[in-house]
Amino acid sequence: MTTAKDIMHPGAHWIPKTETLEHAAMRMRDLHVGALPVSDEDERLCGIITDRDIVIKCVAEGRDASTCTAGDLCVGTPRWISANADADAVLSEMETHRIRRLPVIDENKRLVGMISEADLAKHLDEHQIAEFAQKVYAAS
């Protein structure tokens, strides 16, 4: 059985919710990623921000990325998956919530990896990928 741990890209990095978006953008650049999970003071997932979030919700609104924090952009309940969840559960979570990146959390509620579309493409069959694309990208 293929699990989230098998699919994920290990070694994902948190960014604290108190970190500025300027620093978040530099971290994304340095790590060559388009999203970072955001942690609270207890190092638990409280959100996820993307490079697009920084542009649309900060820069385009005339806000200062050197004072706006990652926590300022986190809204709603973050989605995540257990490292032991099977591939069907991963797809269901991503498809149901129409998300393209999914943090993977271990039994201690700590971040152990991220699953992206590229990770799905490497580990799942063509039928699963086609279904994912149709559900996530199709007009609602």
UniProtKB/TrEMBL annotation:
**Which InterPro entries does the UniProt record give?**
CBS_dom, CBS_dom_sf, Diverse_CBS-Domain
Q: What is this protein called?
A: CBS domain-containing protein
Query: Which keywords are on file for this protein?
Result: CBS domain
Origin organism is Streptomyces gamaensis
The UniProt entry, under PROSITE patterns, shows: CBS
- Pfam families in alphabetical order: CBS
Q: Which top-rank group of organisms is this from?
A: Bacteria
The record ties this protein, via CDD domains, to: CBS_pair_HRP1_like
Can the keyword Hydrolase be found in this entry's annotation? no
**PANTHER family, per database record:** CBS DOMAIN-CONTAINING PROTEIN, CBS DOMAIN-CONTAINING PROTEIN CBSX3, MITOCHONDRIAL
Domain named CBS: residues = 8-65, 74-131
Please indicate if the UniProt record lists RNA-binding as a keyword: no
